[in-house]
Amino acid sequence: MHAGAACIGEHETLQQAAKRMRDLNVGSLPICGDDDRLHGIITDRDIVVKCVAGGSDPAASTAGDLAQGKPVTVSSDADVSDVLQAMKANQIRRLPVIEDHRLVGMISEADLARHLPEQAVGKFLEAVCAAG
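Above: the chain's sequence. Below: its structure in token form.
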């Protein structure tokens, strides 16, 4: 897990989100609301496909504009099988970690790849990418 994941505020622009992703060298950011709760996740692909390609202005669109649905999360006491199941079932590659209703970190497929046996990583990637 990457502890202390940096959030983008729901009222911050997509241009600000893109700059933060560049500066942090990441491809996604959790979207946090004024209540300091997780409202979603935004990816660099979301910004390109849903904003730029659609003709919207990233300097005028907000991260909250792209937050859709309830984000899939795991609790901070989840074990690796819970993490794998959540990522497989939802075909996601990044998973927010929550403690006391607050974001405390993110788990990515790269984190799993570094810490799981090679065979388990292969099965996980196959399951997550199956519908892609």
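The first strand starts at residue 2 and ends at 3.
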